[in-house]
Amino acid sequence: MTAPLRIDIAVCTFRRPALSETLASLSKLIVPAGVRLGVIVADNDMEPSARPRVEAAVPLLPTDIVYVHCPAGNISIARNACLDHTDADFIAFVDDDETVDPLWLDRLLAAAERNRADVVLGPVRALYGPDAPGWMRSGDFHATRPVWVNGEICTGYTCNVLMRLAASSIAGRRFDLALGRSGGEDTEFFTAVHAAGGRIAFAEDAWVEEPVPASRARFSWLAQRRLRMGQTHGRLLAARHEGAARLSAAGLAAAKCTACLAGATAFALSPVRRNRFLLRGLLHAGAVGGLFGTRAIEPYGKLEAAP
User: 5-212 adopts what CATH topology?
Assistant: First the structure.
């Protein structure tokens, strides 16, 4: 008999009550034939605050669930704990404020096999509350999808992803602890996977959903996020460029920032286009800072945590 394919689903958490909804959605998964499922919850709080929620979910889940307490306030520690506690064929990551579609895992796995991919990303559908600004809804600023460069996906994210653990581009690789408070550890990780020859695919129908709380339904939250993303990109560029090449990269990013500001001015009366240009400009501004070692914004473990 053929041994079952083993897939672990990893959820990193930090004081989020929504973890209960995430685990409840995993209990409704339609598990693909021939797959043995496991769940790993990595609690990144100083105290094991997520343990009661995990214990309450045990009767709901038709599979083993492993709780790992891995303090504190550094998301890379939690992600690495999940990698350290699995010996499965695949690991899937989903955030602790998301819920998955019942066919989510089936569709990720099908895309991995169809594309012979080491990494498969899925889309994140943002669910806006009634108080979210109209421009934010219209522009869908919180949705997550991959970015293609010359027809190829060159990096990824951990809010909806399946990874083939035996792939040479992934085996033994870990998330950078230095980026665990600022974020961007996933961008760095998947950029390195791609650089090592890993193939990244997209499963457009492998949906997860993420509510947008009032604390995120603000331009200031999006601005900080884009600036931090730019800093991460700048640091990655700095690792590959020195001297004149680094100055050239910074000059290009600064020029793009200036162009975005001009675009925002041109569309001042169109909130969606204006804010899209402004946020893109902040991304490029962050890249300039990252190229020259500006200290990264460190939101993880400080913001949005429930009391």
Answer: Spore Coat Polysaccharide Biosynthesis Protein SpsA; Chain A (3.90.550)
